[in-house]
Structure formats: structure tokens, C-alpha cells
Amino acid sequence: MPIQPAVIRHLGQADYEPTFAAMRAFTDARTEDTPDELWIVEHPPVYTLGLGADRGHLLAGATSIPCVQTDRGGEVTYHGPGQVVIYLMMDLRRNKPGGKLFARQFVNKIEQAIINVLAAYNLDGERVEGAPGIYMSGGPKKGAKIAALGLKVRGNGCTYHGVSLNVDMDLAPFSWINPCGYAGLETVDMRTVGVIAPLADVQQALADELVLQLQVAEPELT
């Protein structure tokens, strides 16, 4: 039985806290028949903290930007103008033939979507074991982080929060934190590594690639 593709919603520019509340409300209210949704949004500057985040990773300068405690996994990250943010309201029980899509497979598919979109712009991204997100795999910025992800997976298999890809940003706020808990980790955007692309184009490309990846059956990871 084919998997129904997620509905893509464009939220435009929106503050983080009401969007976070809307994600939770959507997930609270959804039923077995509620279509999955991807929300595309661009946030004003904000730091967000994962459930187990250490506030010690907020460094000098970080007090100039609002900081919001969330219920996703991971440490501290930054969202701001010029960044693609896509939230994934998915029911993992319906995304694997014969059973649920495991969270590890879900993360793998999200990361693959980012890698594929970067490749379409002639950029090489890679995974790093034990450090969710996508990193530059070559060139002068090898090892720098270009995309982050943080998810909440409820016990019933429903997810929210999602992924961010840096396109054309003021990168200074990343230097005021230890991104995702890693001291000294360099963060880049697509512009820094030589690609000028309209934000709307990258938003749509990543949303389309996520839909594609999440419709493809994948064998269990061992």
C-alpha cells in the first residue's frame, strides 16, 4: 500500500514560540487518519534548548538573543533569517510497510534528503557518527556543520520538531554558543561555501526531497 505523501505547508516568517505551541497542539489533536504535514518556516533570531541541554553551552554574546526551552532531543542550536527550517509532523507507524519506521531510520532519511539537496547545488555533505546533522565533507570548510536536526518522537510514534539548513545567514550567533554541545564547532551556510541560492528555492527543494525520502521503503538497520 503506497504511503500518502505529507502535506507541505508554508508558514512564511513566524516567531518560534507560537510555532512550537502549534506543533504540540497539532500532535495532541491528530488521529490515526490525520495526514502527515511538513511545515516550512523562517524564524527571527532565537536559540532553542533540547531537553537535556546544558546552559553552559550558551557563551558570551548569547544573552542578546531570546532562548527557548523545548522538548526535542539534542543541545542548543540557533535559528535565524536565511535558514530553511522544516518541521516534520509524521506518524512513523504508517511509514514502513508492515510496521513503524524506526526513529533511527527516520533520522537517516532526513539526513539523506539534506545530502541530496546539497548535491543538487554541487556541495558535498556527510554524516558524522554520533553527531546528528550534516557536515561539509571536503574543501576549506571540511568538517563544518551546515545542517542540524532535533526531533521529538512520542510513544505513539508521532513526531514533531525537525531540521534546519543554513542558506544565507548572519553566522555570528553560532559563535556565541557551542553548537549542539560541541565547543569550537564551525558552522557554515551555503553562501560561505560558494552557493548563492534564493531561500524559497532551497525550502521547496528540501521539502520535496523529504517527501520523496519518506515515501521510499527502507530495510531495517541493524
From TrEMBL:
Keyword list, A-Z: Acyltransferase, Cytoplasm, Transferase
Pathway the protein acts in: Protein modification; protein lipoylation via endogenous pathway; protein N(6)-(lipoyl)lysine from octanoyl-[acyl-carrier-protein]: step 1/2
Enzyme class: transferase
Residues of the BPL/LPL catalytic domain: 32-218
Cellular compartments per GO CC: cytoplasm
Cellular localisation: Cytoplasm
One GO process term, biological-process aspect: protein lipoylation
Entry EC number(s): 2.3.1.181
Residues that, per the record, bind substrate: 72-79, 148-150, 162-164
Acyltransferase listed as a keyword: yes
Site (Lowers pKa of active site Cys): 145
Catalytic activity: octanoyl-[ACP] + L-lysyl-[protein] = N(6)-octanoyl-L-lysyl-[protein] + holo-[ACP] + H(+)
Family: Belongs to the LipB family.
HAMAP family from the UniProt entry: LipB
Note: In the reaction, the free carboxyl group of octanoic acid is attached via an amide linkage to the epsilon-amino group of a specific lysine residue of lipoyl domains of lipoate-dependent enzymes.
Function: Catalyzes the transfer of endogenously produced octanoic acid from octanoyl-acyl-carrier-protein onto the lipoyl domains of lipoate-dependent enzymes. Lipoyl-ACP can also act as a substrate although octanoyl-ACP is likely to be the physiological substrate.
Protein name: Octanoyltransferase
Name of the coding gene: lipB
